[in-house]
Amino acid sequence: MQPTSLASSGSQNMHAQRTFRDIVNIGPHCLERFIDSTNAPEIKALDIELAGCSNLSGTYQVGRVTPPNHTLFYSLNGSGKILTPSGEYALPASSVIILPAHQSFEVQIDQFDETSATPDATEVTKSEASEVQDKINAGKAPRADQAPRADQEQWDIIWLNLSDCPRWQHFFDVAHPVQHDIELAGLHHAMELLYLETNSQHRQAVIPIIQQYLQHIATPVKSTHQVRLSALFAAVEKQLQFNWDIDALVDKVHYSAPHLHRLCLAQFGRSPMQHVIYLRMVRAKNLLISTQWPIAYIANYVGYSNVFTFSKRFKKSQGMPPSEFRQRQSSN
Fold first, then answer.
1. What percent of the chain has pLDDT over 90?
2. What is the C-alpha to C-alpha distance for residues 85 and 12, in angstroms, rounded to an integer?
3. How many whole angstroms separate alpha carbon 198 and alpha carbon 71?
4. Range 9-218 has CATH code 2.60.120.10
5. Which of 15, 158, 245, 296 is most buried, with most CB under 10 Å away?
């Protein structure tokens, strides 16, 4: 997938000649929550050296010169930009960038003006870079105790530093550093829980969730079509009660009906509307098992205003009516 780059070929050459610095320039309206081996030693199992959840506004400029670890930034809300020797990349919401170890970079909130950088920015030599990181971890770097002003851009991100080790070696082979339309809200919530949770067993339970998301990020995206189909049906799953038809699907994904039909057959082995029905039946089964809701209520919840139509569709899908399915599940 081609990255969204702010750089033309000419400006890429300019950035290739840019002098990168180890710098921490964090203004008073930024909030950062750090996850390290002292408050969450469980992250060592995934070769995570440091991670964090950040709510940024105003001045934010962090640069590293040939860092020894891989760095991932994921944009939850708002946008920022990443400067690398190969170019300048925009990082809008729902985008992730993979920066391999030993590649210099600088990260800034959108609309950050380098000429207006605060005079007390922490700029260090390469040999002092680790001390800067220690200051951040200890909470001595500029931290926020004020809410951002209404006129300032807000950028919410999560980020991880991953060891340069065999587990993450394939990050060196990433063809395009930026991936768009990636849903990592679950990773964000897992990291927030890891930060807040004081019980080690509870923190340990979060580690497999983080591992699954990181593996998802690391998996190369095979095609733009797959990304768009995944985004389409993720939206459908969030609104199964909606009266989805083929016109609504093609309007949302911006494909023609025949093209969408071909893509769904290739990826799911089902037509678009068959896949909607499949998602509805999966949700209905889960609700029949995990709740005591009336069947008519479940029918409405998954998009069937007529309970008899729902029961007929469910029986065709599962080989038995929903009432019998629920009874059998409860007896098992």
1. 68
2. 8
3. 26
4. yes
5. 158
